[in-house]
């Protein structure tokens, strides 16, 4: 059966899925045997020259998977030695252990040797606290010896809920998981600690692999149906008019990046609303993008009477925080979607309640903070170590009635209604000055074209990553707009 590689399931929800499978009549031990077989297959395929499989078995079902894998690896001709704990009596893990009798040695007895590969079947996603001292010592020995690790479900010591280590943690080269991905597989640093992911179908029906926790890996299915189309009858105004606000002369480049990105993703018109001092320098750089000099609140108020203006980006290189707040207040009254980025976010540090009041009602605000900006806006959430990045983004989205794009290598897009998506495939080359300005422009352009807010944010983040892949290594932010994929 096809396995859904987009849904993310919390460890608690996965436990309920396992229980539902057993309650529906599916042989739970059969699932364990299938899981162990997948683990053994990855070990044999990826480490054909390994001389000894060091299988670490915990007391629960993760350890049971390890016992099954150990037996299959021994049958394949590999030397196998198990370390760890006896399983809890009466369950599937005890049954797997009984089918492969033999010694289970204490952790302290393992001495690394050339040709070892570790199968970490200790705890998987079931542990959300630090590992014990003897396991920590083993993890340290494995790290010093550079012994390769294949983790079962999750590297032991890594939270499947937050993607954060709870203490000492294995760094796996491969992680074999079953039925569905967990948030910890995608959230940083968990994604790096998992190594190459292997999501395996062990026979749990797709109808059971569901969760009331509406969180996904960002994928085209979240937004494709809402992407703006093309028709012969269209003209520039029906394709939306995006406005990007420019800062002073010295920092006007950020607005140009946003504006060009908005134009490249299909907005019919894009205007840079510049302070008068920046108009001349903008004119030397812009051709297809229009300009308008906006001196103050009064001039902006007059312009906002034009009903053809359909989306706004404010913040990139803007500089004047007081003016940013005043302009944002007017944009909120105009009733069109707004992307608040960079200085636009910083302008509301300590004033998030004011921002939430401005955008009460229908959701039409997108916030795009990186880690530092998120902390300036939501210090209480950023400091709460019990929360995952998904939890933080969702809480901020609810509080602000906004879609929050919490940027990073594991960007999280969260809506006030609880929907969330984790983007996990953007290349590292996006870590360059100005790339966030481009992202704000892409999202702004999609909003100006009429996309719903959450879907526009998900699509924008995906298109941003695709542009970076097309641009290749060594890209600069100026390269990105030309590589934005066509709708």
Question: How would you describe what is shown here?
Answer:
By secondary structure, the protein is an alpha/beta fold. It has two domains: 11-210, 3-Layer(aba) Sandwich (Rossmann fold), CATH 3.40.50; 220-483, 3-Layer(aba) Sandwich (UDP-N-acetylmuramoyl-L-alanine:D-glutamate ligase). It has 18 helices and 17 strands. Helix 2 packs across helix 4. It is elongated and about 80 Å long. Homotetramer. Its cofactor is K(+); Mg(2+). Pfam families: Carb_kinase, YjeF_N. K(+) binds at residues 62, 120, 156.
Name the descriptors.
ten-stranded mixed β-sheet; 17 strands; 2 domains; seven-stranded parallel β-sheet; UDP-N-acetylmuramoyl-L-alanine:D-glutamate ligase; Rossmann fold; 487 residues; alpha/beta
The chain-level mean pLDDT equals: 94
CATH H-level homologous superfamily name of the largest domain: Ribokinase
Radius of gyration: 26 Å
By CATH, the topology of the largest domain is: UDP-N-acetylmuramoyl-L-alanine:D-glutamate ligase
Biggest sheet architecture = 10 strands, mixed
Give helix % range.
25-40%
> Strand order within the widest sheet?
8-17-16-15-14-13-12-9-10-11
Kindly estimate the percentage of residues that lie in beta strands according to DSSP: 5-15%
What's the number of helices? 18
Taken from the alpha-carbon principal axes, the silhouette is: elongated
Low-confidence stretches: none
CATH hierarchy: architecture of the largest domain: 3-Layer(aba) Sandwich
Overall number of strands: 17
Given helix and strand content, the structural type is alpha/beta
CATH top level label of the largest domain: Alpha Beta
Provide the number of structural domains. Answer: 2
Gap from first CA to last CA: 31 Å
């Amino acid at each position: 059966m096809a396995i859904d590689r987009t849904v993310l399931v919390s460890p608690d929800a996965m436990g309920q899925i396992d229980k539902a499978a057993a309650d529906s009549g599916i042989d739970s031990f059969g699932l364990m045997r299938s899981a162990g077989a997948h683990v053994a297959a990855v070990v044999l395929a990826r480490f054909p020259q390994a001389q000894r499989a060091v299988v670490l078995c915990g007391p629960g079902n993760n350890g049971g998977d390890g016992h099954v894998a150990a037996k299959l690896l021994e049958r394949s001709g590999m030397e196998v030695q198990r370390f760890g704990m006896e399983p809890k009596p009466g369950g599937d893990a005890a049954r797997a252990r009984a089918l492969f009798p033999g010694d289970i040695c204490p952790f302290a007895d393992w001495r690394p040797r050339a040709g070892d590969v570790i199968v970490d079947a200790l705890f998987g996603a079931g542990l959300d606290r630090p590992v014990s001292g003897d396991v920590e010592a083993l993890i340290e020995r494995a790290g010093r010896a550079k012994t390769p690790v294949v983790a079962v479900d999750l590297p032991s010591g890594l939270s499947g809920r937050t993607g954060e280590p709870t203490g000492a943690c294995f760094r796996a080269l491969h992680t074999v998981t079953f039925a569905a991905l967990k948030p910890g597989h995608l959230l940083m640093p968990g994604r790096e600690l998992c190594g190459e992911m292997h999501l395996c179908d062990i026979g749990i029906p797709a109808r059971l692999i569901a969760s009331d926790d509406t969180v996904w890996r960002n994928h085209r299915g979240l937004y494709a149906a809402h992407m703006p189309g093309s028709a012969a009858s269209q003209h520039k105004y029906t394709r939306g008019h995006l406005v990007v606000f420019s800062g002073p002369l010295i920092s006007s480049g950020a607005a140009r990046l946003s504006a060009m990105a908005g134009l490249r993703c299909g907005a019919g018109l894009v205007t840079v609303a510049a302070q008068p001092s920046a108009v001349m320098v903008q004119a030397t750089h812009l051709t297809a993008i229009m300009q308008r000099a906006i001196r103050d609140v009064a001039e902006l108020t007059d312009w906002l009477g034009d009903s053809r203006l359909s989306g706004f980006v404010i913040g990139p290189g803007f500089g004047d925080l007081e003016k940013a707040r005043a302009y944002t207040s007017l944009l909120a009254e105009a009733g069109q979607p707004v992307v608040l980025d960079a200085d636009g976010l910083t302008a509301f540090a300590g004033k998030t309640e004011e921002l939430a009041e401005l955008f009460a009602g229908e959701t039409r605000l997108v916030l795009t903070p990186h880690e530092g900006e998120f902390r300036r806006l939501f210090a209480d959430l950023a400091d709460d170590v019990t929360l995952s990045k998904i939890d933080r983004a969702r809480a901020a989205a609810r509080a602000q009635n906004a879609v929050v794009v919490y940027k990073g290598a594991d960007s999280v897009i969260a809506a006030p209604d609880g929907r969330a998506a984790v983007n996990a495939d953007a290349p590292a080359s996006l870590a360059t000055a100005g790339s966030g300005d481009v992202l704000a422009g892409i999202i702004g352009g999609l909003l100006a074209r009429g996309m719903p807010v959450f879907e526009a944010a998900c699509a924008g983040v995906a298109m941003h990553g695709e542009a970076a892949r097309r641009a290749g290594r060594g890209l600069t932010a100026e390269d990105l707009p030309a590589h934005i994929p066509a709708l």
